[in-house]
Design goal:
The protein has about 270 residues and is an alpha/beta fold. It contains eight helices and 13 strands. It folds into two domains: about 45 residues; about 200 residues, Cobalamin-binding domain (Rossmann fold, 3-Layer(aba) Sandwich). The protein has a six-stranded mixed sheet with strand order 8-7-9-10-11-12, sandwiched between helices.
Length: about 270
């Protein structure tokens, strides 16, 4: 007789059938089905009890914060040597998930970058982005939340085979209609397994996911902070920036461009 460990709503689990590769939080249990949300990865899933293994709450991943520490160290040394002042680019982060949004806002605060966060359902983003852009006048806008490519439905080229790619595309087009220049408004869009090519075509500077893989909750924020803390006269090292994210070029891609930080004198 097999006895399963009791698992309740709010517990953290992994799935045996996926080699326990991702930690999830149980967000609901209904009719024997356990509904899950990635603790760090922007992913929804469901499972039955026999496939689940209870685990501890994951510690805050430090891979992104370490990069900020390195950037801060370099900046501090530079500031000691000159009399310039620095004004990082401003970020508007629109997210379909409140928990992931909070993680990103914590990251922006740690990086010392001004950011406004708004929790908006993916299907409603395109309707609200125009007013938000007018109100906050950001240099960078992010559209993220949840997405998925449903392989069983058919081709990855068909946007109907994705959970929210069409909604992200509509939001990108609305933002690009507000500001047509890729240099004046940087758009970062997508979530797990999003249609990368179509998001870039719609007007995004950066998007997920070239290999239709899951992305970390902080991946769009990592790119935004890198751009916000790079001087306007300096080109972003695209490959190096993508490598800062959890899954590199498999998870995020984009086009070349400059940073968005103003440099002034004297301090």
């Amino acid at each position: 007789m097999v006895i399963f460990l009791e698992i309740n709503k709010g517990d953290f689990v992994t799935r045996k059938s996926y080699n326990n590769d991702t930690v999830f939080k149980v967000i609901n249990i209904q009719d024997g089905i356990y509904y899950l949300k990635g603790a760090e990865v922007r992913l929804y899933a469901d499972s039955d009890l026999k496939d689940l293994v209870k685990c501890a709450k994951p510690e805050e991943e430090q891979f992104a914060f370490k990069e900020i520490d390195k950037m801060g160290e370099r900046a501090s040394k530079k500031i000691e040597k000159d009399d310039y002042f620095y004004l990082p680019g401003k970020i508007l982060h629109i997210d379909g998930d409140s928990e992931y949004l909070e993680k990103c806002l914590k990251y922006y605060k740690y990086a010392g970058v001004y950011a406004v966060g708004k929790k908006i359902k993916e299907e409603d983003m395109y309707e609200q982005v125009g007013l938000l852009l007018k109100e906050y006048k950001p240099d960078i806008v992010i559209f993220t939340g949840h997405d998925a490519y449903y392989k069983k439905k058919g081709s990855m080229k068909d946007n109907d085979n994705y959970k929210n790619t069409k909604n992200f595309i509509k939001a990108v087009k609305a933002a690009r209609n507000y500001e047509k220049s890729h240099e004046k408004l940087v758009i970062i869009a997508g979530a797990c397994q999003s249609n990368y090519e179509e998001l870039i075509k719609a007007g995004a500077n950066y998007a997920s996911s070239p290999k239709r893989v899951n992305i970390h909750a902080l991946d769009p924020a990592i790119i935004a902070v890198t751009i916000a803390l790079t001087e306007r006269n300096k080109e972003i090292d695209l490959k190096e920036t993508l490598e800062l994210t959890k899954y590199g070029k498999d998870g995020m891609g984009g086009i070349m461009g400059n940073g968005l930080m103003y440099v002034g004198y004297p301090r």
